[in-house]
Design goal:
The protein has eight helices and six strands; from the N terminus they run H-E-H-E-H-E-H-E-H-E-E-H-H-H. It has about 230 residues and is of the alpha/beta class. The chain folds into two domains: about 150 residues, HUPs (Rossmann fold), CATH 3.40.50.620; about 50 residues, no CATH class. Strands 3-2-1-4-5-6 form a six-stranded parallel β-sheet. The protein is globular and about 45 Å long. About 5% of the residues have low confidence.
């Protein structure tokens, strides 16, 4: 018995199949952090990872746990600042509501394992700072071992990570670096911020975060905002 399909049905099947296979073949990066506050160093690290790992997109995960860092700033506020910072950036997105639910229920490691098991094709790439990779290499940090997971180690500017402690890894080096700690300390001492976007800086000043020195609001805000231009 000969079965014939119309050109329309064949075209529809081809489009759906291509869409499914295309999604499965994507190289997805996951970048977790406290983003306290988010800055251009984070963007540079992601760009280096996208280029070095040939990533199709990167998912931002704003950590619920700040560890030893300032615990006064809520995850909701840090997520809002991150959304201000990464707004309009290509190939960068935040977790979907369903992904966020999995993360809140299972933590970062559980989210990565769940995501990697659901993801087929070219795998998941965890973007991590050089300190995390060094801790994996010396055994003080247990790496996430899951299907198709590769670490992308963001080396310090101008250097290269060679030891990934036995896990699959790619070393990349950003063209710009700064740290949230230096930014917080500088704002607390009234120094010019390095690496903040205007929207994030406005949020910090409006809410007087990080003990920012604001003796004369108008003059300080004007001086800090001009430093970004």
């Amino acid at each position: 018995m000969n079965i014939k399909f119309s050109p329309f049905i064949l075209l529809t099947f081809f489009i759906i199949s291509s869409s499914i296979l295309g999604a499965d073949s994507q190289r997805i990066g996951i970048y977790g952090g406290t983003f306290d506050p988010p800055h251009l160093g984070h963007t540079a690290a992601i760009r280096a990872a996208i280029n070095g790992g040939k990533l199709d997109e990167v998912i931002i995960v704003v950590s619920e746990n700040q560890g030893r860092k300032n615990k006064k700033l809520s995850v909701e506020h840090r997520r809002r600042m991150a959304e201000l910072h990464f707004k309009g950036e290509k190939k960068i997105r935040f977790m979907t509501p369903s992904e966020l639910e999995v993360y809140q229920k299972n933590g970062y490691n559980g989210f990565v394992k769940n995501f990697s098991e659901a993801k087929r094709g070219n795998g998941v790439f965890l973007i991590s700072g050089s300190d995390v990779i060094e801790n994996i290499a010396d055994g003080t940090y247990k790496p996430i071992v899951a299907q198709n997971v590769t670490y992308i180690g963001v080396a310090r500017e101008g250097s290269e990570i060679k030891d990934f402690g036995g896990v699959k890894g790619i070393s990349v080096s950003p063209d710009y670096s700064t740290s949230s700690t230096n930014i917080r300390d500088g704002l607390g001492k009234g120094r010019k911020p390095d690496g903040l976007k205007e929207g994030v800086l406005n949020d910090i000043l409006n809410n007087k975060l990080y003990n920012v020195k604001v003796r004369s609001c108008r003059s300080v805000w004007s001086r800090l905002l001009k430093s970004l231009q």
